Amino acid sequence: MHETGQSSTCPNSSQISEKRVPQSDSLLVQNLTLADALARAAAERAVTPAQLAIAWVLARGTDIIPLVGARTRERLAESLGALSVRLTPEDLARIEAAVPANAVAGERYSAAQMLHLDSERHAATS
């Protein structure tokens, strides 16, 4: 683990070679580049990328509540650490410039996976 709590085994775009990522997976490389930008912004604040992302959601307004999943107590503690992260308007602008929402590439799930996840849509097409 790094001082910020980041795992050193998490791949980033600089660790992914063209041999490992076929050209059809260029969306992965694009998204890992965004993840790298978020990790750099988090390191500047000495927090983890997850903490920075959760803090960003918290800063969006009092009517928005981040829902986080935690499979381990360690991840829960990490997520709760975001509650002490205070972002300035300048911080928010830097994060949004580094990781613009419209820059994320691809769908979250494939169409086949969506059939299993979206029960209402599945029921409507049956």
Secondary structure blueprint with pairings:
Elements: H1 26-44, H2 49-58, H3 73-80, H4 89-98, H5 111-117, H6 119-125
What is the H/E string? HHHHHH
Number of domains: 1
**Uncertain parts:** 1-13, 15-19
Q: What level of helicity do the residues show?
A: 40-55%
Strand coverage percent: under 5%
* C-alpha geometry: globular
Give a short account of the largest sheet.
none
Q: What kind of oligomer do you see?
A: single chain
Question: Which features would summarize this protein structure in a list?
Answer:
0% strand, disordered N terminus, 126 residues, globular
Can you characterise this structure?
With 126 residues, the chain is an all-alpha fold. It has one domain. Helices cover 48% and strands 0% of the residues. It has 6 helices and no strands. The chain has helices at residues 26-44, 49-58, 73-80, 89-98, 111-117, 119-125. α1 crosses α2 (49-58). It is globular and about 40 Å long.
Summarize the structure.
The protein is mostly helical and 126 residues long.
